[in-house]
Amino acid sequence: MDVDPLGDVLRGRRSALARLVVGVGVHVHQAELLGHGSPSKACANPCTCANNGCRPGVPPSDPGRRCRGWDRPETLDDVTDLNARYAPRQRPRWFWPAIAAVGITLGIAFAAWVGFQKDPVTGRLWGYEVKSDNQVAVKVDVIRPDPIDVTCTVYSQAADHSIVGEKTFDVPASRREKVRVFVDIETERRGVNGVLRTCVPAD
Description:
Layout: H1 5-37, H2 49-52, H3 82-85, H4 95-116, E1 122-132, E2 135-143, E3 150-157, E4 163-171, E5 178-186, E6 195-201
Antiparallel strand pairs: 1-2, 2-5, 3-4, 3-6
């Protein structure tokens, strides 16, 4: 049996050196894994750590690092606009003119209906006569479709347009649609006219 002390020493040194190199390589690889797979490096996109080693909800420390298969919009214009996707319905050109025509037609119809409605009582001043400095006579036509009692009021004015006399009188119900009433107005000084104020159904 041959013994080579020098060879044994050299082989032992090689084995130790090889173990040292392997150990250093393992530690370096673990450090890289810890550096790249650390939970502190994460993406804002909900991607999985199996894809590129990031955690959802937290942006990566490296601004250039992005999750695989997803890009963050650079501006608000890149976000989908619902109005652009689903365009609002446009009304036809004839819509508003048709609405205006309908409104005008309804207005005319209502005005015509109101115009054809008969007032329950209509009073008209037929004429007046200044009899003296203290009296003015007036003539009033009362028109009523239905035989109802009517109350009318007349007055007289002086030259300065002040009221110098006034009188309210009743017109009894009658089958005649139109009646003419003669009324004398007593005045405190000379009146120059006679004026009909109102004719309304009696209370």
